[in-house]
Amino acid sequence: MNLETIEKLIQFMEQHGLTELQVHEGDLEFKARRGERPQAPFIFQPAHGLVTAAPLPAENGGAAPANGQAAAAAGGAGPRPGRKEMKEICSPMVGTFYRRPSPSAPPYKEVGDHVHKDDVVCIVEAMKVMNEIKAEVNGVIRKIFVEDSSSIEYGQPLFLVELD
Amino acid sequence: MFSRILIANRGEIALRIIRTCKRLGIETVVAYSQADKDAIYLKLADRAICIGPPPAKQSYLHFNNIIAAAEVADVDAIHPGYGFLSENAAFAEVCRSCKIAFIGPPTEAIATLGDKIRAKALAREAGVPTIPGSEGAVESEDQALKMAEKFGYPVLLKAAAGGGGRGMRISHNPISLRTNFQQARAEAEAAFGDGTLYLEKLIESMRHVEVQILADEHGNVLQLGERDCTVQRRNQKLIEESPSPALDKRTRYDIQIAATRIMKAAKYANAGTVEFIYDLRNGKFYFMEVNTRLQVEHPVTEFVTGLDLVEEQLRIAAGEKLRWRQKDIAARLAAGGHSIECRLNAEDPRRGFAPSPGKITFYCPPVGREVRLDTHVYAGYVVPSFYDSLLGKLVVHGADRIEAIRRMRHALDELVLEGLPTTKPLLREIFGHAKFVAGNYDTNFLATEMGLG
Known about the structure:
The structure holds 2 protein chains of 2 kinds.
Chain A: H1 3-16, E1 20-25, E2 28-33, E3 42-45, E4 50-53, E5 86-90, E6 95-98, E7 114-115, E8 120-126, E9 129-134, E10 139-144, E11 150-152, E12 157-163
Antiparallel strand pairs in A: 1-2, 3-4, 5-12, 6-8, 6-11, 7-10, 8-9, 10-12
Chain B: E1 4-7, H1 11-24, E2 27-33, H2 41-44, E3 47-52, H3 63-72, E4 77-79, H4 89-97, E5 101-102, H5 107-114, H6 116-125, H7 141-151, E6 155-163, E7 166-171, H8 174-192, E8 197-201, E9 206-215, E10 221-228, E11 232-233, E12 236-237, E13 239-242, H9 249-265, E14 270-279, E15 284-291, H10 298-305, H11 309-317, H12 326-334, E16 338-345, E17 347-348, E18 354-355, E19 362-364, E20 371-375, E21 390-398, H13 401-414, E22 416-418, H14 424-430, H15 434-438, H16 445-450
Parallel strand pairs in B: 1-2, 1-4, 2-3, 4-5
Antiparallel strand pairs in B: 6-7, 6-8, 9-10, 9-14, 11-12, 13-16, 14-15, 16-21, 17-18, 19-22, 20-21
């Protein structure tokens, strides 16, 4: 890994707005971080020439395994040894995201809560209609991507769930 | 004037609307489907909101998500572009009841003129000639046969809820009329949700001439000259120009007046186009239909009048009075020269114009004086398969028709568009064709002169 490669990697980070990057090439390891600690590491696989975004749990501050195992194939987050499968709950509509059934009530779910597929996880309000959004998966909420009362679009990730 | 609008459309027209808004200092929010996530104009708008998955029904035709996006982004108005929901009276109504301005005509005008039978009746009441045909719907095969006897074959069965050249069937004799009747009804039901049919005598040698109208909400109606859109393939326009090379002064005047009369009768507001058929056999013109929206080929009129029609639409929808008198427009048209547009589609003329989505590997636009290319494509752009095949519109202007044709020829030669089959080579051929250059052809031009039906 020479200086030119390192410069290219840094450019790559800036281009894609990455805050942390780890590259493993044989015995060599390159780790760089800019700005705040990230939540979901971005794994680069030089052998495949593939760059994949694997929404992995930030267990120990984002360190990737040193064995270079493919963390995620292009197009999806596959299960890794010792790790559970993660799924994003995405919005099926455009509207305003609410974590609570009403302003004074407690949120439907918090990080760390278990959800069952028929549990309501949030409300998306559109054109004055409050739509209850169900989890549709069983698992534990690991991350909530959106702030209460913010506007969201179709397909926007709302929750990260670690599947049972 | 609006401070922020939502553009509920895609492709070249979304970009074209953004341009005018930027010039006027209006913030833009563009709604897009997941298939358009790499569209370049998303970055040019002030905000982009994903409104659904690729299929149009779940995105660009999805009322709820579009209105929700308009509310979430707190816009004053929605511009529907052309196609999709632009002529959907129910959508216009929903917008307005949500206190969002719909940049288009009043809901009632959309509903009346969108019903081809009612539109024809309105034209008749306004004293405008209409094609000999059924005065209302044709209820049965027997009724159709009786009418065909009266007007003479060949006849055309048309869907009342159709438009844009779709939902039409020709019959040359009673036997084919019987078969076509049932099939046309079923097709209309499936495509437009309404199986109502009406019947017309088929004009065999005709030109398509339409008049651009601008009307404000204070009762003022202007006509911006006519466009001739005779070069078509299966009733889909390929080339449009203004003025029409086929009309004499008197006919031009009569058609323009007829268009204004219809739109006044319909209490129209905003931009719209009245389409006519010009019968080459007898020199008569007949009302065909009204398009209650901005049309694809509006740049042709922009070149000969010097106006920005999207700007006029915004001003009208914001309640302003038209800033022009008819004599101002007449002066502009008199000095307006000639403009021609051709449509670049991702279609393969050698395979029956089959749509050919794919990746544009190399793109280089023609530029220069009086050459305009309205397109959303770029090198590396992947044309999605979910929507129409229009890649862009190449529009030129010249002092006269010959200069415009020459300009179009070298503009087409300069244009590089590679990676998938397009209509560019065919268009280049047409602009070199003697009959086209002479201005002497009818709507069967492509079929008879170039063997392309």
